[in-house]
Specification:
about 450 residues; about 30% helix; single chain; eight-stranded mixed beta sheet; alpha/beta
Length: about 450
């Protein structure tokens, strides 16, 4: 994806003038054009003002009653090709709006190349860190591209390839445990969930380690669910529920993209990124309802539903993270439909029992306009995970109802016992298309988590 925000214009940069709703426009000619076209300055309203030669002289951009820099996501896909610059906008709002512009320029055209008539580009505002902005936009694009790519072309091997490229770029170490070697290495739950797939799509546990020799630095672990396609297993999903299951590896995409950002920024941490990449397929060797699985943590899990597989692979990955004795662990997973029922597709829940971490995540989310909502690890629902035949079950009892909460409580049993932990139940998807937000893969909580990590470890 070409850079949407550039250091300087090749020629003339058309000014983008932010206009508050109801504010007067003093430029007589521009004001007349605005009146003739009914421009009021409503949030997101856009009007091109022509010059004498018919070219675009100015862009009027409505701020509404209160300006939200993230509305700039809608600019790039709506503007004609050319170079633009914010008029009179500086500081934090301008920098965030420039990042939003870059995020809005994303498009996925791997399978349907679009006629390239050029693109709208924005000149970086004064004071904006262009390199940082570009890295963050690229990380979001990576996560979105991985989610948008169909499962046939984004299997466990392709996730491994991307992880290797990220590790090589930053001089990090990487190890990959694949297929039956997972049993020998004690990742039984990852193996059980992924063993039904073909050999070319064998399950694997991917581990990246960076700065691990610098033992004086705190250790951050990032864990991602990488279910490249989720049929539901033997508890097969209906067609409508399976349609978008290529996105069930969204947690791995986020963990890898965030890991790359941490390494590129040179944060003062040791870093471990763990991804369990599997396909929840159906074959004679698929794991079954009623099976009792071993896990790396030594706990046994009764399988009540094979469609609750993400928490199983995360259990082994989180247990491995704990062996590094991390100071902070974040896991990302497209884990439950219940999270969407509770909060919808645009507001991911975060679970943690650490108050300072919760505060830091929510503050960062607000600061960079990457929303999160804290949900409770309600102890009253822990009994819903009890099993008569195993240490716990992977499908909570129906009486608890709160499926996203009980899934988080399940993960808490396997989370590292050192440091602090947070679980993010992301959707990783835009279900409706609008300017700057095409239907398809979306990066959620990525920028918020990076901002939190940078505030702690820069």
């Amino acid at each position: 994806m070409p850079d949407a925000v550039i250091p300087s214009a090749e020629g003339h940069a058309v000014p983008i003038r932010l206009v508050a709703e109801g504010a007067g426009i003093t430029d007589g000619r521009v004001a007349a054009w605005a009146r003739a076209n009914g421009f009021k300055g409503a949030r997101g309203e856009l009007l091109a003002v022509p010059g004498d030669d018919g070219s675009v002289q100015t862009i009027l951009w409505g701020a509404g009653e209160a300006f939200d820099p993230m509305t700039a996501r809608a600019l790039a896909p709506r503007l004609p090709a050319g170079d633009y610059a914010f008029e009179g906008m500086q500081g934090g709002d301008a920098a965030l709006a420039a990042l939003a512009f870059a995020l809005g320029a994303y498009r996925f055209d791997r399978y349907k190349p679009r006629k390239d008539n050029g693109a709208a580009r924005l000149v970086a505002p004064d004071g904006a860190d262009l390199d940082d902005l570009t890295r963050i936009a690229a990380a979001a694009a990576l996560a979105r591209e991985m989610v948008d790519t169909p499962a046939a072309d984004m299997g466990p091997l392709q996730i491994e390839t991307i992880a290797r490229e990220i590790a090589e770029e930053s001089g990090a170490a990487i190890t990959v445990t694949t297929g039956d070697a997972l049993l020998e290495a004690n990742y039984p739950a990852v193996h059980a969930v992924g063993r039904a797939a073909t050999a070319l799509r064998a399950p694997r546990l991917i581990e990246i380690g960076w700065n691990l020799d610098k033992t004086d630095l705190p250790l951050v672990a990032l864990v991602g669910k990488g279910v490249v396609f989720d049929t539901g297993g033997l508890d097969i999903k209906p067609a409508a529920g399976m349609r978008n299951m290529k996105k069930d590896m969204g947690g791995s995409a986020h963990a890898l993209a965030l890991g790359r950002l941490v390494m590129q920024a040179g944060l003062k941490v040791r870093l471990v990124v763990l991804v369990a990449a599997v396909e929840n397929a159906i074959s004679a060797d698929a794991f079954r309802p009623g099976d009792i699985l071993s896990t790396r943590a030594g706990l046994t899990v009764e399988v009540g539903n094979t469609d609750a597989e993400g928490r199983l692979v995360l259990a082994d990955a989180l247990a491995r993270a704990g062996e590094h004795q991390p100071d902070l662990t974040l896991d990302f997973a497209t884990l439950t439909g219940a999270a969407r029922i509770a909060l919808g597709p645009e507001l991911p829940p975060v679970y943690t029992d650490d108050e300072p971490l919760a505060a830091d995540l929510l503050e960062a989310a607000c600061r960079v306009r990457d929303p999160l909502w804290r949900m409770p690890l309600w102890p009253g629902y822990r009994d819903s995970l009890n099993s008569e035949m195993a240490d716990l079950r992977n499908d909570s009892a129906a009486w608890a109802q709160a499926g996203s909460v009980t899934a988080a409580l399940f993960l808490q049993r396997f989370a590292p016992k050192t440091g602090v932990w947070a679980h993010l139940d992301i959707f990783a998807w835009n279900p409706r298309a609008r300017p700057g937000h095409p239907e398809g893969g979306e990066a959620q909580a990525l920028r918020a988590c990076f901002a939190m990590l940078r505030s702690r470890y820069a």
